[in-house]
Amino acid sequence: MRKRKLCSVLGSPVLFCLAVAFASPAQTFTTLAGFSQASGFEPFAAMIQGFDGNLFGTTLQGGAAEGGTFFQVTTAGQLTTLYSFCSQRNCADGLYPHSVVVQDQSGNFWGTTKSEPPYGYGNVFKITAGGALTTMHSFNGTDGEQPQAGLTLGSDGNFYGTTSSGGANNGGTIFKITPAGTLTTLHNFNFSDGNYPASALVQATNGNFYGTTSFSGPNGGGTVFEITPAGSLTTIHSFCSESNCADGEFPDGTLIQASDGSLYGTTTIGGAVSGCNNANCGTVFKLTHAGVLTTLYNFCSESNCLDGGQPAVGLVQGTDGNFYGATTYGGANNEGTVFEISPAGKFTLLHTFDGADGASPNGALMQDTSGTFYGITSVAGPDGGGTVFSLSMGLGPFVKTSPSSGKVGTAVIILGNNFTGAKSVAFSGTAATFSVVSKSEIQTTVPAGATSGRVQVVTATKTLKSDTIFRVTK
Q1: For an engineered disulfide with 15, which of 9, 45, 184, 263 has Cβ 3.0 to 4.6 Å away?
Q2: pLDDT at site 15
Q3: Which residue numbers in the chain have pLDDT < 70?
Q4: Would you give the DSSP letter of residue 397?
Q5: At CA 353, angle to CA 29 and CA 6, rounded to 5?
Q6: Which residues are registered as beta bridge partners of 233?
Q7: 32-58 pLDDT per residue, tens
Q8: Which domains does the chain have, with CATH numbers?
Q9: Which of 323, 256, 318, 316 is nearest to 287 (CA)?
Q10: How far apart are CA 212 and CA 226, in angstroms?
Q11: How far apart are CA 22 and CA 14, in angstroms?
Q12: What is the reported pLDDT for 277?
């Protein structure tokens, strides 16, 4: 049984919703908002949940100056443009933000703009929730250019990122930037170790960072690499190592470290399906830190790619332990799909886009602390510029920590819902002092005696645990 609900409110901010109830009452797909030229269009990166409980992201184009935007959207679908890039003379503030943003402990958001000559080589920016932007670094080509990926807030308080090109060998770079804006290049790619790193880094529980290059490497199909905070890089897998690129090619999405400690990701093309070498197929893979790769799923396994093709956006692990992602093409309408895959590789198609609800989802899904998943499509939708959508799988609420690791005394922000009247906070059973900032934010510090484990918050009505283990460092 299916039922649809359509509602809209004209004006700014925009509220638009289209709900589809599937046969399972626990699964509901909803289009929350539509992008346009005026509000910004072509969102290309995942959104994040801010400390205030709202969602934040960027659009590649559109806005008042047509250089892209930084936006906020409520979980009810109210979309607000907070900043329009290229607002400053000669686009000194950058243009074409292609990346996910990250929020620091002070509540500011950090991100990157691609830019293009003659408007520079891309920037690192900091912006408040009120839309006040500060350019923290402008790339000059020698230290990299066109950063397409977002930043990662490291456990040391610095930000880590990549540029897709430029650097000493014009193959892209890995860099570190301090909160004060001092940038250090950690690695220059030289093609033999890959080139064109276009996805964000992930810091694993061992303290090292992992990422991908889209091209080159020993087998020419892109790589997965490990880099220490000091800049020592190791290639742990080179794609197209199997005949006809059966292991996949062009790993464009951001990696995640799952609860089992392994890395999971997607390749945009390739795979074991006949005829998929250099075609719109792709894979989901698991990779150990030692470099052992297992292909969990090959796209276009169904006739006419009804399961989807080109999963370019990476994965998120839900609180049920399964992985959720999207494909930019394929499906019944060739507009992309949303899928679920178990750690054992069981694939479930959850949604097929039809254009009216958006098309070509180019940003990874994220799960907010209510348990609901949120994502974006880059084009189509009610106003033609892409959409924000939600997917409820009936999963319960939880809490997130920022950062996800730290030593005793480290300040930690806990995100969640309905914190008013919270009774206690504990790190792996060790009680911590805390203050409730709002219904969605708690401030605390890592208590003496704490060990690595889940963070628990007892609210007025229920007990909530963190989605990942908080790692207590020395």
Answers
A1: 9
A2: 39
A3: 1-26, 277-278
A4: P
A5: 50
A6: 227
A7: 999 999 999 999 999 999 999 999 999
A8: 3-392 (2.130.10.10), 401-472 (2.60.40.10)
A9: 256
A10: 9
A11: 26
A12: 66
